[in-house]
């Protein structure tokens, strides 16, 4: 095409001037919006310079392509990984810069929506609880607007966790919960002989996990256990955490029983990620509090409270994660409860209630012990929240 040059008039000039105006390279719309005047030429030169194009003050094919790409403001169109002709534009560059700020690996902000950008977007989506399709549409834009601005430098994992919770709504349908029965395989965990019987932590927590799986699945939750009843080997905690990450879990619950040389030691405790100097997973802490309070209220186990730990299991998981020590197998009192299947069902109800409350907006939360989890399915089906 013949370059559009100083002195030209017409709709093409109007379009060029509109883009230059939106880039704030032109002072203001002149009286002749369709005229390639001196201001326009200066603006074209400034634009060419900023994009590394040869600076001649005319709009040839190359400058036109750059201007065309520059007109896209982030959010104005859905971005995705197109092959073989990738999308390019100023919006892609803005997106890449924002992702880079948040610590995602997009490579260089080159304005091209390539596979690396798509992967970074998918990772972001997964972490805020969106479908990780790698394309940037209105939902992803909303999530970016809400957290992108607040956060510069470093990976704002805890913020994103809260955002994912807020955003995903009160329904449990479609959530993925990973339940981690501790130990297993060659590692039975706590073992306590009881007459002719022999109770093991690995078996009891697996039974708890299966019951929990059944109850959550009935509420429309996708559930995955980290191990079966009798695995060949004991999966290390690192692998359990990575498994939950790879499944894109919304919630991670690890189940253990405690033990102590002193048979008087008893009660339930729940752990979430956090350090001694106050760094904490806010959502993990909230989930831990809910699980702990619901179990205490519904089972009468002694309250050994919630605690912050930096265990790998809690540190490496990317979703709200808790480890519950549901009583002491070494305590005759706790053990008498734990070996009773009806008691284990009450523990399971408590955990289901806690998971459900996790997805209530704080202001619509309900008192501990009050949520009738048998109603959950109807509530979920009706698409409403219990008040
Ligand atoms: Zn254990």
TrEMBL record:
Pfam families assigned: Amidase_3, PG_binding_1
Keywords: Hydrolase
GO biological process, one term: peptidoglycan catabolic process
GO function term, MF aspect, one: N-acetylmuramoyl-L-alanine amidase activity
The MurNAc-LAA domain, residue ranges: 241-356
Keyword Hydrolase set for record: yes
Any one GO CC term of the record: outer membrane-bounded periplasmic space
Keyword Cell cycle: no
PANTHER family: N-ACETYLMURAMOYL-L-ALANINE AMIDASE (PTHR30404), N-ACETYLMURAMOYL-L-ALANINE AMIDASE AMIC (PTHR30404:SF0)
Full protein name: N-acetylmuramoyl-L-alanine amidase
Taxonomic source organism: Micromonospora taraxaci
């Amino acid at each position: 095409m013949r370059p559009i040059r100083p002195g030209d008039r017409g709709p093409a000039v109007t379009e060029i001037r509109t883009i230059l105006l939106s880039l704030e390279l032109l002072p203001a719309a002149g009286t002749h919006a369709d005229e390639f005047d001196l201001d326009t030429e200066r603006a074209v030169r400034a634009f060419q310079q900023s994009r590394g194009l040869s600076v001649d003050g005319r709009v040839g094919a190359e400058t036109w392509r750059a201007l065309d790409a520059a007109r896209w403001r982030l959010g104005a169109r859905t971005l995705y990984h197109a092959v073989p002709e990738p999308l390019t534009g100023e919006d892609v560059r803005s997106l890449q810069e924002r992702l880079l700020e948040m610590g995602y690996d997009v490579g260089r902000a080159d304005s091209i929506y390539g596979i690396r950008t798509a992967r970074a977007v998918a990772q972001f989506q997964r972490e805020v609880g969106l479908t990780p399709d790698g394309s940037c549409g209105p939902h992803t834009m909303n999530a970016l607007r809400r957290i992108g601005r607040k956060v510069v430098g470093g990976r704002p994992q805890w913020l994103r966790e809260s955002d994912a919770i807020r955003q995903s709504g009160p329904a449990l349908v479609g959530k993925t919960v990973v339940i981690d029965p501790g130990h297993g395989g060659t590692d039975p965990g706590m073992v306590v002989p009881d007459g002719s019987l022999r109770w093991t932590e690995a078996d009891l927590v697996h039974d708890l996990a299966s019951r929990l799986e059944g109850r959550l699945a009935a509420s429309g939750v996708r559930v995955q256990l980290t191990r079966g009843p009798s695995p060949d080997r004991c999966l290390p905690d690192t692998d359990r955490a990575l498994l939950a990450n790879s499944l894109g879990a919304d919630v991670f619950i690890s189940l253990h029983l405690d033990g102590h040389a002193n048979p008087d030691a008893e009660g339930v405790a729940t752990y979430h990620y956090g350090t001694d100097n106050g760094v904490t997973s806010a959502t993990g802490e909230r989930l831990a509090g809910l699980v702990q309070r619901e179990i205490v209220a519904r089972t009468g186990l002694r309250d050994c409270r919630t605690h912050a730990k930096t265990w790998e299991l809690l540190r490496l998981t990317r979703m709200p994660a808790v480890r519950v020590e549901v009583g002491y197998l070494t305590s005759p009192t706790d053990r008498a409860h734990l070996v009773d299947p009806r008691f284990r069902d009450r523990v399971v109800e408590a955990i289901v209630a806690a998971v459900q409350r996790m997805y209530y907006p704080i202001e619509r939360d309900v008192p501990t012990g009050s949520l009738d989890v048998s109603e959950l399915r109807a509530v979920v089906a009706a698409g409403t929240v219990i008040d």
